[in-house]
Amino acid sequence: MALAAADQSRAPVAYGLRAVPRLFEDLQRPDSEQRKRALTSLCDLLHEPERLYQTITAGQVQELSLLLRDPDSGVRTRTCDLLHLMSSHAIGRHALLSSSLLTPLSLLLDDPDSHCRISVHRVLNRLSLLPSGAEALLSLIPKLILKLRKTEQRREETRKEELVLLLSTLARCSHLDALPALASDGVALLRDKLSHGSAHVRREAAAAMLALSIPLEGKRQICALGVLSDLLTLLRDPDTEVRANAAGVCMNTFVITAGKVQGLELGLIPVLLDLVSPLDLQQTQIPEQTLDLKQTMEWTWGPEQTLQQEQTLDLDQTMEQEQTLGQTRIPEKMWITEKTRVPEQTRVPEQTRVPEQTRVPEQTLDPEQTRRVKALVLYCLRALTALSEAPAARCRLMKHRPCLERKRDTDPELRQATETLLRVISWTP
Length: 429
Fold this sequence. Notes:
By secondary structure, the protein is mostly helical. It is built from 26 helices and no strands.
């Protein structure tokens, strides 16, 4: 209590169950500094799930609606920070969606304070994790699309963070329904973000374009605007997820005839084949641990026989040097004799031999990186399958058929995609 009172940026906190209701009473005070201190203390308390559950079950979330319209930008920003903290839990996201806070939150997307805008984007991005949240945000899609134009006039560091959050929210909502974004000229605006200098922005822009390419109207707009030429550059991007999203857009667009024609004209077949080659998979694999000769011999023969083999190898090497060099002779004191052998009691007993299953410790791949590489290869295989429905593409892929037949995939989904591609290539009318 004394520590809380000594901190001028935080309000005094009551004891026990009275702490949260007392702070909500402080939010009604006319002094903006007292409201900001109460919000800061609430953010500290609501890190505990029990306090968050108490706040939501008491129905106190709705009281934050007036603070979102507060004239003080600091109060608005800290209120959004509090909502962002609440949305980190599923019960908090459901409480926000069932309240009437989305309307005042959407009004803060044009707030003059950059920190407040970023906090709003964080809340909306968290809400879009739920299907019900993405559905509730569909009405905000035209406004989010409009924000893509306005972010170009902001500072670089602020613009980048806003762009990443905005594009991520837009991608999740468009996966549920892409028509609102397509109706708002979303493909043309997203195309400009595909060449952004930040890998995070390119990744989210490609993910949003992937969502827009699912309906037929999205495929037509991508072909009409020539987006496939931009995707050719993204397929060579150093970021794996950017390449995977770009390959996914190609996979969806090649379904229609216009997409197949543009893909053949741009020469996308060699690029896609390079991405499904074993070399691309080997870049993400950890090389096997190499063992020195002595360790290999110990695991093969055991410590005692290894010592004898080492002595034999040393003697053979000495005799070989004498025959080849002639004048270079190893002194007798360095020869391995019976006296220089390791005593029996100092040798490693047979029981300490390393078991077969623990000899070479295996290093596992990063699961997230493995998932990205699998998505990249799978999208490329399916894109080639859709493209090979055209006779000209089948003729070009026919000479690569032996390489694809030698492709060995342990993953059943990748193996099935490769077999499907081979069947389509081999099809004859």
